[in-house]
Write a structure and sequence with these properties.
The complex is a heterodimer of chains A (370) and B (361).
Chain A lengths: L1 H18 L26 H18 L8 H9 L17 H5 L12 H14 L13 E3 L2 E3 L6 H24 L15 H13 L23 H8 L6 H17 L3 H28 L7 H17 L11 H11 L3 H6 L4 H14 L5
Antiparallel strand pairs in A: 1-2
Helix pairs in contact in A: 2-6, 2-7, 5-6, 6-7, 6-10, 6-11, 7-9, 8-10, 9-10, 10-11, 10-14, 11-12, 12-14
Chain B lengths: L7 H11 L18 H39 L3 H22 L5 H4 L2 H5 L6 H10 L15 H10 L3 H4 L5 H27 L1 H7 L9 H25 L20 H17 L6 H7 L3 H19 L5 H7 L1 H25 L13
Helix pairs in contact in B: 2-3, 2-9, 3-12, 7-9, 11-12, 11-16, 12-14, 13-14, 14-16
Classes of the chains: A mainly alpha (370), B mainly alpha (361).
Chain lengths: 370, 361
């Protein structure tokens, strides 16, 4: 059924090619099927998938700040992937082992937009980790129960981890997808496919989902699979259920990849639009959840943790595409709301500012959570 | 750690996602059950105007009286002046039980219940604070159990408490007690002020039953209070978490011997919230939703649990060890009530129980 749909579309493309042959690829579109998994020939996305592994190791280390004083050197090494910084502790249950990651020859920092900003936030996590033995209160960094907060109640490592879903993941995927139309799709390099196929595969690698991603499978089931959804891909199930981000993005990636090989560019371009839309929307849905849920939480550590995640996802939305429905002005309002001290946000029982953030997000993206 | 919240329902939605191409996503329907908005407005107005705001006003007044009495004791510490202060202490603590269930909105924003009734008190930390003069009441979690009623309970009513107000460290001890009193008053009056401010309108106009709605807050807090009754108030001191080894000194109001009165007041007030006092409450809302049998069953179970509590011989803190049968019976009846609220009432009102929803990642 699916196939005939694409064949019909490709006929449409052919019709266009009759009228203006200078734009459309001259090769005719052959009938093709979209596989249920990302099982294509000549797929190699190790470069982007290992960056997700490095992301996991980096944010895992920063997450240790509540129980140990972090080393600025270790953060530098992890960020730049030098001195064999990845250890079994930091790279467990991920598709690539710590030795794989240490031996890569490339790093996180080189592919992060606003790398300086994220490094500063990571360094701030190192700085406040020395307060992890004392209690936090308004204006004073320290621990509340098991979590470490700065003087405004912010968990820095959450801003880094979630913010990088924009600065590392969304930014790179969108940049790769933008390169697709101009990429070469005739010269096949063994093991990597054409330039266009390879760019597509690299974009897929950044999503952080396995090739046989299954939206119905509970990846928390023990034993936990090493090849499991990570980073933004992990949030498809966690916060992107309602908008069905996981199913839509995975299907669009498979469809687009099959279309590229079949040179069916209309379908490919439709897939690009879906992917961009739903990756951005998954970030927005997560941000929405974390400006909503903390409003009803009483435990202050859980509340501030949620708000920190929310601030991280709002930070990630900075890297949304230029045609985003979220306007620059509204985005700035979101940022300033999340920059308010969480102690101040928490003291307002009417949650006026957080409700304003909710309204901005649903105004731009429609309903994001049930 | 990330996935325990994934439930069957979620999996079903996910399954749906596979077929998205065929159907347009309309989302889930609004969780509001059939119900009359006018009824809900009336019920919530009743809650705010006739139960909640008067409860905070009463607590404020009782704390003012208590402060006067406590100052009388501190100015002239003796068994006699302490006895004179005790009725005011009891009145204030019992009055608190009428606000305990309202731990959402303003109270939750200010962490009121955490700060004024986290028991048992951390006695050695309190003594260290007095000795060093170095203590802070504004640190969430850490300073919860060095202030509020439990701290007063210890400072005023522990064995030999009176004598300590005449010793060498008595000025520091008196200051600590005054600081505790002042903080309780500030927290309660700030909470009352927020209820009298814009929060009241947002409470009364929240007519849905989704997470964060007023009805969801009420039902969640009913369950939460019963969990607290089943755990810290009865179960834990009774040894339910410790292989039946009794920890009587972990109970509420241990030093003042008010444990039983406090428990009975807590449950009686909770029932009052359930029925909505003399106006419409969640019980009437259940009737409106055609769940009259459940409404009556819950009401009856409240009475059974209250009389089971009343049947425990005084002092209750000794009964944990001496009269386990009566305590066990009360525990069982509270548990039954909890089950009814947490499952049947929650599902009848389409409310999701959210208070354990701690983000695990």
């Amino acid at each position: 059924m699916k196939t005939s749909y694409y064949v019909a579309l490709s006929f449409a493309a052919l019709l266009i090619s009759c009228t203006d042959s200078s734009i459309v690829e001259p090769d005719p579109v052959k009938a093709y099927t979209v596989p249920a998994t990302y099982a294509f020939t000549n797929v190699d996305y190790k470069e982007s998938a290992t960056r997700i592994g490095m992301w996991q190791g980096f944010q895992t280390y920063l997450g240790k700040s509540n129980t140990r004083v972090l080393s600025a050197d270790t953060v530098n090494y992890l960020w730049n992937n030098t001195n064999n910084a990845f250890t079994p502790e930091l790279a467990s249950n991920v598709p690539y082992s710590f030795t794989d990651l240490n031996g890569l020859g490339y790093n996180l920092s080189g592919k992060v937009t606003d790398a300086g900003l994220f490094k500063t936030l990571a360094d701030s996590t190192v700085y406040i980790s020395k307060f992890n033995k004392t209690a936090a209160s308004k204006g004073v960094p320290g621990r509340i129960d098991t979590r470490l907060f700065n003087s405004n109640g912010v968990e820095y490592n959450q801003i880094v981890a979630k913010g990088l879903m924009g600065g590392l993941i969304l930014a790179n995927i969108n940049a790769l997808l933008d390169k697709i139309p101009a990429s070469n799709n005739t010269m096949v390099i063994a093991g990597k496919g054409t330039e266009m196929e390879h760019n597509w595969d690299l974009a897929f690698g950044y999503v952080g989902i396995p090739m046989d991603y299954d939206v119905t499978y509970n990846y928390g089931t023990t034993p936990v699979k090493a090849d499991r959804p990570l980073a933004l891909g992990g949030y498809f199930a966690e916060r992107g259920n309602y908008i069905q981000a996981g199913g839509r993005v995975f299907e669009a990636f498979r469809t687009g990849r099959a279309a590229i090989t079949a040179k069916d560019y209309a379908v490919r371009d439709a897939a690009i639009i879906t992917i961009k839309e739903y990756l951005e929307k998954a970030l927005a849905a997560s941000a929405y959840y974390y400006v909503t849920n903390p409003q009803t939480q009483t435990a202050i550590d859980a509340k501030f943790h949620g708000l920190s995640e929310g601030a991280g996802f709002v930070a990630a939305l900075k890297y949304r595409p230029a045609n985003s429905k979220l306007t620059a002005a509204n985005y700035q309002t979101l940022v300033s709301i999340m920059n308010t001290s969480y102690y101040v946000l928490a003291e307002d029982a009417t949650n006026a500012k957080l409700k304003q953030a909710q309204a901005i997000l649903t105004g731009a993206y429609g309903q994001l959570q049930p | 750690m990330k996935f325990p919240r994934i439930t069957l329902a979620v999996a079903t939605i996910l399954t749906g996602a596979v077929f998205y191409a065929c159907t347009e996503n309309k989302g889930t329907t609004d969780p509001a059950p059939s119900g009359n908005d006018a009824f809900k407005t009336g019920m919530l107005t009743n809650y705010a105007g006739n139960l909640i705001i008067p409860a905070y006003a009463d607590l404020s007044a009782k704390l003012t009286t208590l402060e006067t009495q406590v100052n009388g004791f501190l100015d002239n510490p003796s068994a006699t002046t302490l006895d004179a202060a005790k009725p005011a202490y009891k009145a204030a603590y019992l009055s608190y039980q009428a606000t305990s269930a309202v731990y959402f909105g303003p109270a939750s924003a200010l962490l009121l219940n955490n700060y004024i009734n986290t028991f048992p008190p951390a006695t050695s930390q309190i003594e260290r604070g007095i000795a060093s003069g170095n203590y802070r009441f504004d640190q969430p979690v850490v300073s919860d159990s060095i202030q509020g009623f439990p701290a007063l309970d210890y400072l005023l009513f522990a064995p030999n408490a009176v004598g300590k107000f005449s010793g060498t460290d008595s000025p520091a001890r008196k200051k600590y007690v005054r600081d505790v009193m002042a903080r309780m008053k500030t927290l309660v009056s700030n909470t009352a002020a927020q209820w009298n401010g814009p929060y009241r309108a947002s409470f009364e106009t929240s007519l849905k039953t989704d997470v964060g709605s007023s009805i969801a807050f009420l039902v969640n807090q009913f369950a939460y209070e019963l969990d607290a009754m089943k755990g810290p108030r009865i179960g834990w001191p009774f040894g339910k978490r410790s292989n039946n080894i009794v920890f009587a000194d972990k109970c509420e109001g241990y030093y003042s011997g008010l444990t039983k009165e406090l428990a009975v007041a807590n449950l009686t007030n909770l029932k009052n919230y359930y029925v909505g006092g003399s106006g419409n409450g969640i019980a009437d809302y259940l009737v409106l939703l055609k769940k009259e049998a459940l409404a009556n069953q819950v009401s009856a179970q409240f009475d059974v649990a209250i009389s089971a509590l009343n049947a425990i011989p005084q002092p209750m803190s000794e009964s944990f060890a001496k009269n386990p049968a009566q305590v066990e019976e009360a525990y069982r009846q509270v548990q039954k009530l909890l089950t009814l609220i947490k499952t049947d009432v929650a599902s009848a009102t389409s409310v999701q129980i959210t208070y354990m929803d701690n983000d695990g990642d």
